[in-house]
UniProtKB/TrEMBL annotation:
Catalyzed reactions per annotation: feruloyl-polysaccharide + H2O = ferulate + polysaccharide
GO molecular function: feruloyl esterase activity
GO BP term, pick one: xylan catabolic process
EC numbers: 3.1.1.-
Stretch forming the signal peptide: none
Species annotation: Rhizoctonia solani
Keywords per UniProt: Carbohydrate metabolism, Disulfide bond, Hydrolase, Polysaccharide degradation, Serine esterase, Signal, Xylan degradation
Protein name: Carboxylic ester hydrolase
Family note: Belongs to the tannase family.
Length: 224
């Protein structure tokens, strides 16, 4: 792919931000989705489409929503009414799913609830330098899913096993004790190996807040 054709990285993507233009290339998972869920094929077939056919398949998928995979419904009332707390994160350096899609969904939910303050039940953390769910040049270890054992480098494991550093513990603390996470601290390990210690940490804030750090004084500010 010609790098000059790639869209720019999102603000806050840190270095090495990547972006991909899918064009008409469809990866294996998406091809299987169209073949066996949208078209309901019962035999193994290779999916070959042009742009017009792809648009037709997308239109069918939007209407039929097989397996309820769209995940775009902003009506979270049933979930919230049961006392549910939604703690979401997305990496600004995600090369597969645009990071703006999570911000878009958050705003759709706010709009559905008449722009009410949702901070007591829904918090979105946008993570600078985090790739697709994990990895990337940023502080991508904060107790996220997909953690590896210490013997395998400890990717994803938090610096401290507390709600301030660990997103899973933060979610538990929110649900069980009613303490919403004001910030989360992520860590980047040296050579991505927990056994070599921390290279740096970053303070993450719930959207729409943004973190402004002073590297010389190590002071942190939150801005709306």
């Amino acid at each position: 792919m010609d790098p000059s054709c790639s869209p720019p990285s999102s603000p806050g993507a840190s270095s090495d931000g990547q972006a991909q233009l899918p064009g008409l290339h469809i990866d294996l998972h998406l091809a299987d989705y169209f073949s066996y869920q949208v078209l309901n094929k019962t035999s193994v077939q290779k999916l070959q489409v042009n742009e017009a056919e792809l648009q037709r398949l997308v239109a069918i998928a939007d209407v039929t929503d097989p397996g309820q995979t769209r995940a775009m419904n902003p009506n979270l009332k049933p979930f919230f009414s049961r006392g549910g707390k939604l703690l979401q994160y997305h990496g600004f350096s995600d090369p597969l799913i645009p990071s703006g899609s999570s911000i878009w969904y958050y705003e759709q939910v706010r709009s559905y609830f008449k722009n009410a303050d949702l901070s007591d039940r829904y918090r979105l953390f946008m993570i600078p330098g985090l790739a697709h769910c994990s990895g990337g040049p940023g502080a991508s270890s904060f107790g996220r899913p997909g953690q590896s054992s210490v013997s395998q480098g400890g990717a994803g494991q938090s610096l401290n096993f507390t709600p301030q550093y660990d997103m899973i513990l933060a979610a538990i603390n929110w649900v069980e004790k009613g303490v919403a996470p004001k910030t989360i601290i992520g860590v980047k390990y040296k050579n991505d190996d927990i056994r070599q210690g921390a290279a740096f940490t970053r303070l993450f804030c719930p959207y729409p807040q943004a973190h402004r750090g002073n590297l010389s004084t190590r002071k942190h500010q939150l801005s709306q």
